[in-house]
Design goal:
Layout: E1 2-9, E2 16-18, E3 24-31, E4 40-46, H1 49-53, E5 60-61, E6 73-74, E7 85-93, E8 106-110, E9 123-124, E10 139-147, E11 153-161, E12 163-168, E13 171-172, E14 188-195, E15 203-212, H2 214-217, E16 234-242, E17 248-252, E18 258-261, E19 264-268, E20 272-276, E21 295-296, E22 298-299, E23 307-310, E24 316-322, E25 326-331, E26 334-351, E27 358-364, E28 366-367, E29 373-374, E30 384-388, E31 395-397, E32 404-412, E33 423-430, E34 436-440, H3 443-459, E35 460-461, E36 463-464, H4 477-490, H5 494-506, H6 534-546, H7 550-569, H8 598-619, H9 623-644, H10 656-664, H11 673-686, H12 698-707, H13 711-719, H14 726-731, H15 767-775, E37 777-779, E38 788-791, E39 801-808, E40 811-820, E41 823-830, E42 835-840, E43 849-850, E44 853-854, E45 861-867, E46 870-875, E47 878-885
Parallel strand pairs: 2-8, 14-23, 20-30, 38-42
Antiparallel strand pairs: 1-3, 3-6, 4-5, 4-7, 7-8, 9-22, 10-15, 10-18, 11-14, 11-16, 12-13, 12-15, 16-17, 18-21, 19-20, 24-33, 25-26, 26-31, 26-32, 26-33, 27-30, 27-32, 28-29, 34-39, 35-36, 37-38, 39-40, 40-41, 41-47, 42-46, 43-44, 43-47, 45-46
Helix pairs in contact: 4-6, 4-15, 5-6, 6-7, 6-8, 7-8, 8-9, 8-10, 10-11, 10-12, 12-13
Length: 887
């Protein structure tokens, strides 16, 4: 028997306030027995849970649909309206035609779908002269309103240019941090939706908001600049009150609101926050508060060209707390706390002292030799929080609108002796569910995987940022391109990338160029090779991981325009024009002779994205386009070989990155691949078995070695702990990924600080190789989204075991292998309603057993073929334990 579990709508559980007119529904098929499939499904959608409980779908009854689709089933019922809540459930039939129970009721709710339904106005408040660094106190806003009768439902739609924290009757609204998510405010603002029914009462109510500069008017990008989008933060909110009789009242942001300065003297992502607890206004967010001293807000002129778009992914939240491992006092009165983990967020302070005492917190990723915090690599970002005590007892404080990247916290000015309870690390991230886990017999590799995961945690902050600590923190697209596949293993990143791709498209130039950063800011030129190419690669990676064709369809024309932009400037089929900020193989070990040619890499990535476009065109039924792009692929490939490849398989610049991308992007004739791979190995050997790749070559290096029969060399790179290597980072204390292979030099000193981050995920793209090649979990590109699964572990490097778990969109996949004497053990979990091909490293398939039985006697396991030292089997869903002779 089977049953549906984990019902989701647009990747989310019970999403509130979506603007997708035909949402897609997904579920996981669970089964206790092997080789089970979903043969049929039926979905019911109703406008109330009561109607649904009666097994009626008055909005949509799909009827019995005879196929095994369990992801991205498109709602095809009655048209949906703003604010409508839709309840749904699904039941299945298994391979024998036996029906399951219905899934538990799930729901989604629509947002405001028409511009005319927005009735609010943008409001702001001037808190007076700047206090520090041209920054003003954060505005506090409030409005009292009366509810005359019981409420059926109260829905709040809210957004800001900048950041908001909202409260109703003294209670916080939601648990999102730094809302709304970052967009290009010149074109779009994301809005959030909350069900606030339980926070309201009959009689007088009060709504309050605190505004922060955030990305809108705060410091952003290098150059010590503010106000890149606007001068002051603004609030836009609409509260819809629905009564049992069907009537509706609407409360909006308008001239009826009041404003005041408050205790947040200033708050900035880069600079930090200063908070004067003596200026707190107890009860400011409640109806009975005396606001006679507050002033009228300013109503801003409506900007109709700004599009309000529903939040469509998990928001940023506080996801974890970390207690310090130790505290030191390198100088009198200076306390330095070590949290043991480079993290992103802020520090919660616990302190006692007299009113007016100023306690200062500074943040750093590493320490100077004298034990003080090292902040030179933060550049102009002060990353300093200051708390001014109100006195009278223990005070606990955490900032509102700032975040830092740090492992160490320096506390000065504390009136009492600091201890391990003084500081708590509050970890912030876009709250994506973790889906991947990896471990093996080598502790250094396990630490590497943890560093990769923490690098993603610290840089998936509304957008995929490059770094979280210095005066940058931008959505660099080159970083996103190389890391996307690893990201989709570690976390369910589908909704996150779906939302970010909106900003990528918003940044496209009139000529068709994608930007270098999204949202586009600071770098205003058209996109560079590999950076702009993320506009094609990221949708491809989402398609591979989740089987999502709608993202392709939504951005297909934008992707086509990017390819036209490149082709128009390069009709000779070598990418030598319109290279813009051509960064090349960013921060590679070699930057002079022996470095990867920028133009060669540009052409290689052009070939790559054209081929991906052909595959995506075919996936959405654009067969003519697919043929057109494949012809272009073959033409650029031929030009690449003529320009850069010698008859003996050597590539012109001879760099490791050149060989890695040529092999991975299928740029070489089949007869030259072995020779090119050997040249790559010789290059690595000549460097004493060390890598020399930068951002663009590193993701493809170990996969290229593995797929050409040189997995042993890939393992040598993994096992290194001398510069340059991943192990060098770990040997020098890294708990996240570094921007440079030598962010800390071999001698132990920090790299010159102009461009040096200790939390930069790009080199963590090796995580893809850990999952796909070491543990051996992959999706079949011909059946993406893990409809058909490839289990192909490649043991080596002295490992005695490796294990990965991956919660795919279709359920949990496990590959768990170990070597015992001359036996190779592989435990596999394949989700129901999927199939898998399993590769076992043995030259004798007759030795293979499954759960102690000869494999030919096991139902659901079929021998496919024998390759050199490799036996291939086809299996259905279920748990398996294979044992094979292993030399």
């Amino acid at each position: 028997m089977i049953k549906p579990i984990s019902p989701r709508c647009e990747y989310l559980q019970n999403p509130l306030g979506i603007d997708v007119l035909q949402p897609r529904l997904s579920w996981v098929v669970a089964a206790e027995e092997r080789n089970q499939i979903q043969s049929t499904y039926q979905i019911l959608v109703a406008d109330s849970v009561e109607t649904l409980a009666a097994d009626e779908g008055n909005l949509w009854d799909s009827g019995r649909v005879d196929n095994n689709q369990s992801t991205h089933v498109v709602y095809q019922g009655a048209p949906l309206s703003s604010g409508q809540r839709c309840w749904w459930k699904v039941r299945l039939w298994d391979r024998e035609g036996r029906p399951s129970v219905y899934s538990p009721p799930a729901w989604w709710q629509m947002g405001l779908l028409k511009a005319a339904e927005w009735q609010g106005q943008w409001i702001s408040f001037d808190t007076g002269p700047a206090t520090e660094m041209e920054m003003k106190a954060c505005p506090y806003l409030r409005r009292v309103f009366r509810v005359a009768q019981p409420i059926h439902r109260a829905t709040l739609y809210v957004t800001a240019k900048g950041l908001y924290r909202l409260r109703l009757n003294g209670q916080p609204v939601g648990n999102a941090v730094f809302a709304p998510d970052w967009a290009d405010y010149r074109q779009r603002v994301f809005y959030d939706t909350y069900d606030v029914t339980s926070l309201l009462q009959q009689g007088d109510n009060a709504m309050g908001a605190i505004l922060g500069d955030g990305w809108y008017s705060g410091y952003l990008g290098w150059g010590n600049r503010r106000k890149r989008y606007g001068d002051t933060p603004q609030l836009f909110a609409q509260l819809n009150l629905e009564y049992p009789d069907g009537s509706v009242d609407i409360l909006t942001t308008d001239s009826g609101w009041k404003g005041s300065a408050g205790p947040i003297l200033f708050s900035s992502f880069y600079m930090g926050e200063t908070y004067d607890a003596g200026r707190e206004m107890p009860g400011w967010d409640q109806a009975e508060f005396d606001d006679s001293g507050w002033q009228a807000v300013r109503v801003e002129k409506a900007e109709r060209q700004i599009q309000l778009t529903a939040q469509s992914a998990e928001p940023m939240r506080l996801v974890q707390e970390i207690k310090p491992k130790s505290v030191a006092q390198p100088q009198p009165g200076v306390y330095v706390f070590d949290l043991g983990q480079n993290m992103v967020g802020w520090a919660r302070l616990r302190v006692r002292g007299e009113a007016g005492t100023r306690v200062q917190l500074r943040f750093a990723e590493i320490l100077s030799p004298n034990g003080m915090v090292y902040t030179e690599n933060l550049r102009s970002a002060r990353s300093t929080d200051t708390y001014i005590l109100k006195g009278g007892g223990p005070e606990i404080w955490e900032p509102h609108f700032t975040f830092h990247g740090f492992r160490y916290v320096e506390v000065t000015g504390s009136p009492d002796e600091a201890d391990l309870e003084t500081i708590t690390g509050c970890v912030l991230q876009s709250d994506l569910p973790q889906t991947g886990f990896f471990e093996c017999s080598k502790p250094m590799a396990n630490q590497l995987w943890r560093n990769i995961l923490w690098g993603q945690k610290g840089n998936f902050l509304s957008v995929p940022t490059d770094c979280p600590q210095r005066d940058e923190r931008l959505g660099w697209m080159g970083d996103a391109l190389v890391f996307a596949r690893t990201a989709c293993f570690n976390m369910n990143a589908a909704a996150f990338y779906t939302r970010w791709m909106i900003s990528v498209a918003d940044g496209q130039s009139p000529e068709g160029a994608f930007p270098d950063v999204a949202p586009q800011i600071v770098s205003e030129r058209d996109g560079a090779p590999a950076w702009g190419d993320a506009g094609i690669v990221v949708p491809w990676m989402v398609y591979q991981a989740y089987g999502d064709t709608r993202l392709i369809e939504r951005h297909y024309q934008a992707m086509a325009r990017w390819l036209d932009y490149i082709h128009a400037a390069n009709p000779h089929l070598l990418r030598t024009k319109r290279l813009n900020n051509n960064y090349g193989d960013w921060v590679a070990v070699d930057t002079g002779v022996g470095a990867a040619s920028k133009e060669m890499l540009a052409t290689a990535f052009w070939v790559y994205i054209v081929r991906l476009m052909a595959r995506m065109a075919r996936a959405i039924g654009r067969d003519d386009d697919a043929r057109k792009y494949m012809e272009l692929f073959e033409g650029i490939k031929a030009a690449f070989n003529t320009a850069y490849v010698f008859p003996d398989g050597r590539i012109e610049d001879g760099s490791q990155s050149a060989y890695a991308v040529a092999l991975q992007f299928d740029l070489l004739p089949a007869d030259l691949r072995p020779a090119a791979a050997q040249h790559l190995v010789e290059n690595i050997k000549a460097r004493d078995w060390h890598l020399s790749t930068g951002f663009l070559g590193t993701p493809y290096l170990c996969p290229a070695l593995a797929e050409t029969g040189h997995q042993d060399v890939a393992y040598r790179l993994l096992n290194n702990d001398t510069y340059p290597s991943w192990g060098h980072m770990i040997k020098h204390g890294a708990t996240t990924m570094w921007e440079r292979w030598n962010s800390i030099l071999p001698e132990g000193e920090a790299h010159p600080p102009r461009m040096n981050s200790f939390n930069h995920y790009a080199f963590g793209a090796v995580g893809e190789w850990l999952y796909r090649f070491v543990a051996g979990i992959d999706t079949d590109p011909r059946q993406p989204g893990y409809q058909h699964i490839l289990i192909y572990p490649r043991p080596g490097g002295g490992l005695t075991y490796a294990k990965a778990e991956y919660d795919s969109i279709r359920g949990r996949i496990v590959s768990d292998w170990k070597i015992e004497g001359h036996e190779f053990h592989l435990k596999v979990t394949i989700p129901a309603n999927t199939t898998a091909t399993v590769y076992l490293p043995t030259s004798n398939p007759d030795t293979v057993t499954e759960s102690g039985q000869p494999v030919e006697q096991v139902e659901g396991v079929r021998f496919v073929k024998q390759e050199t030292e490799l036996a291939v089997f086809r299996v259905g869903s279920g748990d398996y334990h294979f044992v094979a002779a292993f030399a």
